Amino acid sequence: MSYRIVNKKPLNSFVTMMDIEAPLVAKKAQPGQFIILRVDDDGERIPLTVAGYDREAGTVRIIFQIVGATTAALNRKNSGDFISDFVGPLGNATDLEGRKKVCIVGGGVGCAIALPVAQKLHEMGCEVHSIIGFRNRELVILEKEFSEASAKLTLMTDDGSAGRKGLVTEPLKEALESRENYDEVIAIGPLVMMKFVVATTRPFGVKTTVSMNPIMIDGTGMCGGCRLTVGGKTKFACVDGPDFDGFEVDFEEAMNRSNIYSDFERHAYEKDCNLFRKEVE
Amino acid sequence: MPNMDPKKNPMPTQSPGVRAHNFEEVALGYSPDTALQEAARCLNCKNMPCVAGCPVNVQIPQFIQKVKEGDFEGAYQIISESSSLPAVCGRVCPQENQCERKCVRGIKGEPVGIGRLERFVADWHNDHNPDSVSPVESNGHRVAVVGSGPSGLACAGDLAKKGYEVTVFEALHVPGGVLVYGIPEFRLPKQIVRKEVETLKKLGVKIETNVVIGKTLTVDELFEMGYEAVFIGSGAGLPRFMGIPGESLKGVYSANEYLTRSNLMKAYRSDSATPIQSAKRVAVVGGGNVAMDAARTALRLGAEKVYIVYRRSMDELPARKEEVEHAMEEGIEFRLLCNPNEVLGYFNPDDKRDPKNGTVIGLRCVRMELGEEDSTGRRSAVEIPDSQFDLDVDCVIMSIGTSPNPLIKSTTDGLKVNQKGGIVVDERGLTSRPNVYAGGDAVTGAATVILAMGAGKTAAKAIDEALT
Lengths: 281, 468
Known about the structure:
heterodimer, A: Rossmann fold, 2 domains, five-stranded antiparallel beta sheet, about 30% strand, disordered C terminus, B: alpha/beta, Fumarate Reductase Iron-sulfur Protein, Chain B, domain 2, five-stranded parallel beta sheet
């Protein structure tokens, strides 16, 4: 079985968007869910969160950052090419029912995953405030799309080359201090960002949901590789998540587990492609 | 005259020193001469106690009779009347607890090597008579099978032979289930699984990979698509952990993850895109077949020292006897009557960025002794006070069982599960939902290939009776 890439578009030098023909997945996918793909036979299985879907066209949108051998191989494919495997939708959809006012915090390529959540909330009539953060202007993605789905959008860059200079937690803290009565804060981005978002919201007691993206193999509740500790209990991101209560997640442990294979990844990647340097959000 | 040698003809194997460093099959199989000699040990008992010991009732004395006559193909035909996967079962069945346990020859010596003969016959057939199967004329009925492990393949095969249009839905990218992701190459070459799957395809069975039932499609949608019955053989689920400190350190794996990386994703090959930790000293916690597979895989991936840590004694060890013997020959050290209570991790207080932070440096255990029999009839293991000791390891593999996968039960209304989460079925394999059948580990929890296969066959028979 193989799956056709019907559209490919680079969003910046490190981030690419693709629409993949997978009608069964497109029919069911919801914001917050993920898919697992293999680029070619003997390839690695990697999880990517669903960045969008077109139920009628039968396509699923993925947006990925080129960080390792597999994402580099995927990025070498073009529109009209095929990838070997594409399975999903996996995990649970983000629970959005009944929300009136939500703050979406996205970091780096995590914004690609946050966008469908923002769009869905917007469609449901919820007031969406989005805070999206990037390293610099060159890495900014999806600004227009976010602005269309948000009542209020704050763009942050580390160096101030676009939007406001600083971290996403700064405007978040200001909003909470000025008594924006959010039903929920949804944070999607690097682990360290989500950890600090949680540290920011905790004193205010605002429900904070984080989207975890640990290492996985099968993604269906078989291997146990994606386990994390939530509220002192072992949970599996693939079947129990990927969204969890941010106040309960053990981020130190998750960050430790996330770099298990960083040496292997680096070697595989450098061997595979010397053109890029790993870009950490 | 029967051959009255009290011992089985030994199974030729790769020598332990060599095989501990490769992934090729350990047991090499009987030659035709050895098979003839072993078959001659069968007394052809009238009451056939061995058949009663087989979960799928292979007509054992009959097939062995054919072997005696040198009619190996005839022997294969007899086995395949009852078993869908003879080349697999000949390799992975726990014969010592089944057919061979009931063998009369076992009273005063070793039983007839029934498993070895089954394997010989199946391999002989595969080498000499590539299957010339072709689809049976359709009876117009469509059946969906969830999962392509032993229960699903057996169910699909039996139904296809009766003319059913069968589609098997597999979540992973290759069919075979545990035969592919779980059981290692050195115990069950994947070539054999591929061949079994090819045979099913020739029978007309369709296999759809990358479809997760409960996610991509639900059981109810399968009925909407026109399937008249559904068999759920989705296998065991989430790996269990002990709930002790340190289980999330880098270097702690579930056996499922460790084996999946090596077997399914081929991490044992240097050119694999999927990584696996190359540990030097490994402790595998548990005493089942999966634990043996993980331990022997670790050895082959280059570990210098591998321990099996099991809380009961050798007598209670649930693994297949041959696997335990092979593991011992290969130098795996059994630390019996031991139970871990903490995985020890490395933390450099002076350098938070030390890449070794959060990695495994040991397994803290206590010694155990056997106490009273518990409700299952097994003697419970009781901790000996002040007996704590540390094993110096850099990798720990938890192989203490699984709990059922929640995906199907949470998306199928009216599907009854038991306290442990296993799907409840009657003796025909029928669940609480009409026309939905189930079998294998999804029902029983982690068990054996042959029991799963038997459940698939039982359900196939019930489906056939219900639909025609």
